[in-house]
Amino acid sequence: MRIAVTGSIATDHLMTFPGRFADQLVADQLHTVSLSFLVDNLDVRRGGVGPNICFGMGQLGGNPILVGAAGYDFDEYRAWLDRHGVDTGSVRISEVLHTARFVCTTDKDHNQIGSFYTGAMSEARLIELKAVADRVGGLDLVLIGADDPEAMLRHTEECKAREIPFAADFSQQIARMDGEEIRLLLDGATYLFSNEYEKGLIESKTGWTDEEILSRVGHRVTTLGSRGVRIERAGEPAIEVACPEEEAKVDPTGVGDAFRAGFLTGLSWGVGLERAAQVGCMLATLVIETLGTQEYTLRRANFMDRFTKAYGEEAATQVHAHLT
Fold first, then answer.
1. For residue 36, what pLDDT is reported?
2. Is 75 a catalytic residue?
C-alpha cells in the first residue's frame, strides 16, 4: 500500500527554569508583566504529527509519504527522516517562513509557559494530493492529520472527489473547529481516529450519535490510554486490543502518533485489524518508555519478544513475516 500522511511538521524547543514562575509575579502588576527567565536546559526535538507517524512507519520497514509544509530551515530534519525510511519528496518548502515551532519553558513545579508559531504550516493548504499521487504512482490511503485547518478541509475534499480512501485524524484541531467542519472531515472516512475524550467532543460538536457516526465511516478507532484501543464497525462486534506491559512510563508525548504508525503499517501488511492494532499498541509502548517522539530505536528481536509475550505465538508468527 502507498500511504500518504498529511499533518503538521514542527520542532519543539523545550527549556527548564530552576525556579517558580509564581515567585516572579507581582499581584498588583499582572496587567503589565515583563519577565525574562534564565533557563538551565534547552532540548530541541523533532515533532509534528506528520513526521511522528511517518517515523514510526519507517522504523517498521514501511515507506510512508510525508505531506506537509516546512520552512527553509528543514534540511537537517529532512535528512533525519530520509535516513529513517520516510519519503519527503512531497513536503512543500516555504521560501519565506520558518518551520512551525513550539517554544515552552517549564518551572520546578511543572508549570509551563509556551507559544506555538505556525510558520510554514499555513502553506499546507497549497498542496494538491493529485501531484503527490502522480509522483508516487497512486495512493491507496491518505491519513489526514492535525494541520492547517484549511489544508485538512482541502485534502479531505480532494480525497472524496478523487475517490481516494482516507483516514480522519483531526485530534488537536477539534478544539478550534465547529460542528460543520468536523462533519465534513469525517463523513466518508475509511478510518476515524480519536481518543476517548475526543470521541465525546466529536459527538457533541457534530450533533451525531455514536451510531450515526459509525454509519458514516468505515471504522472508528478509539484509543483508550493504558487500556489499549477499540475498533468499531457498523453491524459488527467491536475489536478490543490491550497494551503490552510497560517497562517504564517516561513521556506520553507522541504515543497516539506511534499507535497510528503501527496500525497503518499493519494494514499495509494485510494482517487484519486486530493484528494491526496490536502492532500499533506495541509501538506506542516503546514511545511511552522514551523521552521524545522520535528518539526510540526499534530493535526487531526485542520488539518481537515483547509482542509474543503480549499477544501470543500465532499473532507473532503473522507479524514476524513482515517485520524484516
1. 86
2. no
CB under 8 A, 24+ apart: contacts of 154-161 = 154/125, 155/6, 155/67, 155/127, 155/129, 156/184, 156/185, 157/184, 158/128, 158/129, 158/130, 159/129, 160/188
- DSSP symbols for 148-185: -HHHHHHHHHHHHHHT--EEEE-GGGGGG--HHHHHHH
Cell of 183: 462533519
Of 69, 74, 62, 63, nearest to 7 (Cα)? 69
Convert the pLDDT of each residue in 165-216 to its tens digit. Answer: 999 998 888 888 999 999 999 999 999 999 999 999 999 999 999 999 999 9
- Read off the pLDDT of residues 73-102 as tens digits, 9 standing for 90 and up: 999 999 999 999 999 999 999 999 999 998
The predicted model scores a pTM of 0.93
Q: Considering 12, 87, 148, 257, which one is annotated as catalytic? A: 257
Count of Cβ atoms closer than 10 Å to residue 318 Cβ: 18
pLDDT digits (tens, 9 = 90+) for 9-49: 999 898 999 999 888 877 887 778 888 889 988 988 999 99
Please check whether residue 5 is in contact with residue 265, taking contact to mean a CB–CB distance below 8 angstroms.
no
Query: pLDDT > 70: what percent of the chain?
Result: 100
149's CB contacts (< 8 A; 6+ apart) are 173, 176, 177, 181
Instruction: List the grid coordinates of 276.
Output: 494491526
HSE toward the beta carbon, residue 72, CA cutoff 13 A: 4
Of 68, 57, 64, give the one whose Cα is nearest residue 8: 68
Q: Running DSSP on this structure, what letter comes out for residue 30?
A: G
Say which residues have a Cβ less than 8 Å from residue 186's Cβ, sequence separation at least 6.
168, 192, 202, 206, 213, 216, 217
Question: Which residues are paired to 11 by β-bridges?
Answer: 46, 101
- Which amino acid is it at 35? L
